[in-house]
Amino acid sequence: MKSGLLKNVHPEKRFEQVYDYILERIRRGEWKEHEKLPSIRMLAAEFGVHRLTVFKAYQLLKQENKVYVRDKSGYYVQPGSLLSPAAQQDPIVSAYVHESHLSEIHQVEAAYQFSKALLDPNLLPNRYFSEYVKNVFDLYPKVLGTYSTTQGDLELREALTRYFTKRYRFDLTHDEVLITSGSQEAIDLIARVLVRPRDSVLIDRPTYSPAIDVFRRQGAHLVPIGIGPDGYRLDQVEELMKKHKPRLFYLNPTFQNPTGYTVPAEQRKRLADLAAEYRCLLIEDDPCPDIYFGHEPPLPFFAYDTAGMTIYIRSFSKYVAPGLSIAMVACRPGLMSYLVKAKSLSDSGTPLLNQKIFLHYFFSERMQRHLEKLRTALAIRKDVMEEELAGTGWEWKSPEGGFNLWIKLPESTPMERLLVTSREQSISFVPGSICDPLRELKTWIRLSYSFLNEQQLREGLRRFAGIYRELTTGSNEG
Ligand SMILES: Cc1ncc(COP(=O)(O)O)c(C=O)c1O
């Protein structure tokens, strides 16, 4: 950062900028544990600010246990406060690497993948894909020679607008729709546009682990709110909104990942009102509302929101066509223009071919009929998993939709050893702590029933339960 750069920053805010600067460098691993930090005098000169401004930033970092002081010597990086293991190991990569725990788990090959909340590719109507692809080339012979617009193909945005208006009572125009390459990109764009370091972000506890990593990377102050089988405690939500004035609330209210819980309809209206009252944007991540085993879930928050405070993200990756990586974001035009600008900085639009194939495939009668079969297949797999785990003494609430069981293991579970031994025996699962913004929940795990067929589920779960027994009782006998 160059000298005098903060001249145009309001004096009250300058110390925050210095604070962010120091924190970011520690986070990236450029300044290492126990390393001496630049002196107050040096930083004040570099930023062109008063020494007291830098002093204030250091004091806050000290309070937060990110730096420590040695008498008459200066400030030093507190060990273990921020650095990811990757950053500690590789100083060159460290400046660019941010923590992403779930992807690390997915990178490990395993014969029994209980960690993947993805659809088994065998459950998709694969035989018919080539028909759609051929159709698309017949209809749009120049499709490979053309970019999409950054906001997304107009024909697709219009079709989605009609679909969401009819099916979910959305009040929507195609200008309020953005196509992204998966909802992961959408979360990232939203975070980049809306979250500045130390902004408060309200977030489900537990939640979709990569969202934690994205908001953390932005330097957000995460404010966890517990989600249970009956949704939220609304008095708690209101208290947190009042106290922290969060910029946004990231939530996944329908068959939540990892818990499978659904926020009931009556809470949705009230939450939309609270969001409007406290000017807190609701980021509604909704990757699997079609995967229900009994009743259809309630309408999305977006349908209840009359104040324009909701950004709705719908992935079509999870069960329509993971290989196409298509998701939709819906929000009001003021916000949309920022998201489109942010997307234009990372790509020139999601590939047009993917958008056109998705358009013809998703809105076909065959796909819509296929959803019915998919629900049945996944309900059976869930039942198989529950049956296999019935004798274990583990606890869970049977989900009414989605891809996962969220399981509480006994307090005495040696989680680290369970992870390592399972991995050695080619079994993967998601430890609950990575879904927790507080990194606690150490005796919870997420097991997905969506990726393996029934036979693999049975075999893998028997082995997994066997490993657990052996670690906890010394016997592998079921
Ligand atoms: C809650 C949630 N959000 C986002 C994603 C990412 O979806 P996509 O594959 O569209 O990037 C997932 C995928 O597991 C998810 O469960």
TrEMBL record:
Cofactor(s) for this UniProt protein: pyridoxal 5'-phosphate
GO terms for MF: DNA binding; DNA-binding transcription factor activity; pyridoxal phosphate binding; transaminase activity
Keyword DNA-binding: yes
Name of one Pfam family that matches: GntR
The HTH gntR-type domain, residue ranges: 12-80
Family, similarity comment: In the C-terminal section; belongs to the class-I pyridoxal-phosphate-dependent aminotransferase family.
Stated name of the protein: GntR family transcriptional regulator
Lineage of the organism: Bacteria, Bacillati, Bacillota, Bacilli, Bacillales
